[in-house]
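Worked example

This section walks through a single chain of length 790. The input is the sequence exactly as stored; nothing has been trimmed or padded.
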Amino acid sequence: MKLMSAFITLVKTMLVMAIPSMLVAQVYDEEPPDKTLGPYFFVKSDDPDVDQLPLKATYGEVNISGVIADVRVTQIYKNEGKNPLEAIYIFPASTRAAVYSMKMTIGERTIVAKIAEREKAREEYEQAKEEGKSASLLEQQRPNVFQMNVANIMPGDEIKVELSYTELLIPTDAVYEFVYPTVVGPRYSNKSESEALDNEKWVKNPYLHEGKAPPYEFDLQVRLLAGMPIQDLTCSSHQVKVHYNNKSEAQIDLAESEKSGGNRDFILKYRLAGNNIDSGLLLYKGEDENFFLTMMQPPERVKDAQIPPREYIFIVDVSGSMYGFPLDISKKLLRDLISNLNKEDKFNVLLFAGGSRVMSDQSVAASETNVQQAIQMIESERGGGGTELLPALKRALALPRSEGLSRNVVIVSDGYVHVEKEAFDLIRTNLGNANLFAFGIGTSVNRYLIEGMARIGMGESFVVTAESEAAHKAEKFRKYILSPVLTQIKVRYEDFDTYDVEPLSIPDVLAQRPVIIFGKWRGEVTGEISLNGYTGKGKRYKSKISVSEIKPSKNNAALRYLWARSRIALLADYNRISSNDERITEITNIGLKYNLLTDYTSFVAIDSEVRNKDGKLATINQPLPLPQGVSDYAVSGRAGGLVSMMQSAKLAISPRAAKPGLSKEDAAEEEALPEQIVYKPVTIKLDEVRVDRSDKEKDIKQFIEKNLPDINECIDNKMQAYLIKNAKAKVVIKMEIGKDGYVTAIEIKSNDFGDKNIEQCIIKKLNEWQFSFLKEIGIITVSYTLIFSN
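Given that input, the structure is written out below as tokens.
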């Protein structure tokens, strides 16, 4: 037994050296050794003295008054082990959240956090941690991603951390929506940890396997004071209990069955009686500054507008995180969008994961044949690989434009990347005279990316959480692009002394939602605010609000936070175009002045009592559940070869001999595999290359040989079993390379393995290749044979 144990250990060591890091993490329950900045699978330590799951509960208390939501999030940490802990927890919030306070409670002691410059707050926290004091630190890693550190949680301790934020609810088509995000989905990254900035390292976080419930309790309560009678109220994400106190006030509580519901966004929607919109003016008079918020309703959409021909570029995410449920939704959405294009329209499709492939070198007519080709291209996808959004965006935005057609770019993704700022810059500088629409797919999408791309692209964002919503959202998209609700918008202030107004200019209004304006005011409450523009049919439109009819209210104190959050978002947008120290200083000063969490300011709370005398503690990264419907491939990145590689690795020894040291899951997996088979490494050789441009044959052959390792991910146990029996196999391939150097068409002429899954995997890998040295040469046809042997 000792000899077998030693042999198993040796095999594991060899495999750790040979198999990619994320695969090792999954098979051998270890964090990736290659220091790649990316998520990994959590495996509980064997040390019984260390509590690996210190977060015991998280719940939210929401008060919605009119159009303003005030949210208090409570996190309860408890150390059920025997060693002091530091817990690190990554969690989301609304993209519009203005976080304005935090406090920490230990037993009977409550410590109110202070706002400080980010680096200073971190230094104070680290010092307190070393001194043995209990402390908590709240940092913003993205506008919708926060990190909580809680240090020196002593054995038996229960530490409660509360943070509060406010946000504005903006109705669309008379529907109000409150979203409470519960979990941060895994973000794809190809950076090494050594190259990452401090605010990027949160991406390296442990996740539970798909289908595993959150290891902490989740609860939520919402009190809705609508100010007008509520017509209907629904929650599509969770089961809830609704109690109406009166016609305009409701209490919403999670059902008991939803205590593990912290793996998807909580989404509450409601309408007011008569489809009214709570538009108007809110005023707040402070000690030093006065703030206002106006919501001005645009006209109704023009229904009989003439629709000019348009060009559509569909960019579709088919990476590992989209495998299964999200990709199924995407396929349904794309079928609906593409099938309903007008015959005069043109379109193109670009699919991306680790690489990308495009349907055509330029947009094609929306004929029945082209539409079917596009649908088949999308339907063949299973999902797998990384999420290289930036190269895909660059390629799509560089596609030649069709003259005389209005271009619309449509992105479909879950947004599980950490390159939001780079994507925003790319869209801003390359989109040109076009609109960008973003569809977020899944139960817990990266709304910061989805909403940000649409905002910068002067379009609209949509989030589709279920297949049943796809057709409805596609129809809304079509309505939005028919014609804008309001254009050439101007806002005037007459006898009302305003300053620091956001936004300075208002883009075309595509959706039926109010125009939102924040600002400050001086002097008397007099005058009026007017909104002017043109409707979709070119008719003039004017709306106005009488300021003197409104009285300032102390209940509108949240306006100071909402104004500051709006100004910070604007400065951050400018900073993405060109980073500027003065702008960073301004954001920092606003955060400090208005007590707000920002990229450059953090909350820190430190207990005065030294509780951990020797200063030793274990640092635990709280594992997160995968969002509902998201598969393990969101972490592994592989949808084809991953499980097969795991199986091949395990078959290096007899499954029966290995079984005593395996978990129940692994043992079951081993049981299904054939015994006494030892799989050898597979060799792939290139043979019989034929190119219709003889002057390029040598370069093309060298390129293919160099990139053959890509196809290793297609090797599965069926292929291995075939090679053990037959020694070698051939796959004959014919492909076309377009003007941009990318593969535009692939045909498998013959396949000795006789397995369609192998064909699809090889096609997927070849579609990611770019022969950059063939740009601008024209279409080139290449035929060749791959010989597999072991």
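What to look for: The CA atoms of residues 79 and 544 lie 58 Å apart.
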